[in-house]
Specification:
- The chain has 25 helices and 2 strands.
- The protein is mainly alpha-helical.
- The protein has a two-stranded antiparallel sheet.
- α8 packs parallel to α10, α11 runs parallel beside α12 and α20 packs parallel to α22.
- It starts with a helix and ends in a 15-residue tail after the last strand.
Amino acid sequence: MSHVDHTSITRFIERQQWIEHISENGANAFNAFASAPAALRNDKEVVLAAVAQHGRSLLMAPPAMRDDKEVVLAAVAQDGHALEAASAVMQAEREVVLAAVTQNGHALAHAAGTLKRDKDFVLAALECGGVLVYASAALREDIEVVLAAVAHDGHALAHTGVWRDDKAVVLVAVKQSGTALAHASDRLRHNKQVVLAAVAQNGRAWAYGAAALRDDKDVVLAAVQQDGNTLQVLPPAMRDDKEVVLAAVAQNGTALKWATGYLRKFPGDKEVVLMAVAQNAQALAFAGLCWRCDKEVVLAAVAQDGSALRHASPGLRNSPALRALCAVDPALLATQLRLSCALVLLSSGGDALSGGSGLELLPSDVIEAIGFRISRDVVVNGVMARFEYWSCDLRPLAPPEKRQRR
């Protein structure tokens, strides 16, 4: 074997070892590539291995590699900001820049000025996730560009100048992201239609409405209906309003923890607690002790999720009947005990329930109870709803041999 052949083989082996080393380093590929011999940093295959793992390894590549379209495309596909290290020619290459902004919208910052001033290109970049703030000042004032930007990212409204006071533009923005209301003009933050649109998309946008609208019942109800936990940031008067709290817990039962003590503790309103545990059984944890001692409330919770029994009072938590109930297949309970559109309550299986409630499918030793029908009228967002369900009075089970057959 000639000396030349031996040298070539040695270099080939060294090259493959470095490619393997860089590929195995993942997030540390940048440092691995930086420590490679200069000759290997000029090798396209080595550079491709590096930028595939860490796009900004392009910074350590020689100029020829930063002007190579294949290499740059591989780099920006891994990290859009690698466009910063590309040559000026590549920064003006549409395909490369669109690939970069698809990976990271902020990569538009590194595009050539000619592209930032090109309306068709900027519209295409916005479609790919580009960020409006990096477009030219003239295009940030262009209504077509502005509408395209806020339709993809409502918060682009912050960079639209006079359009922040345009109702049509702001409505598009807040429907995409409710909290974009923060960037609207003061005049439009006083506009009820705009604020309602914002809270319908994100309840937390309530905080960005004008003070007068933050006290508006329609706005508050729309906010908690979208996100029950918005109740947390409402003023005490709203957290003490039964209609508001009912709407909140209907959307997220655990929002009960943000209600005033009156509505979740004695002598609060039982319907609020029942609505909360029907939506999320774990809301029982936030009910007052008097409700965690209440059989009807605890039954409503454990019928939906047996693990909620841990939040009941010690007396009910240790009830053999309830503990047996919690061992029943949840799918069976969900199928057989969904007795109303909003409340899911366990009920007795006695004669009062003959007629196909499905409770006869439960194990006969789960509960004994005295069943009776309850009707409750609940007002939610101005609409009266009637919930009908069965309740029961639990008592300890007699041994099987002493239990009379029904």
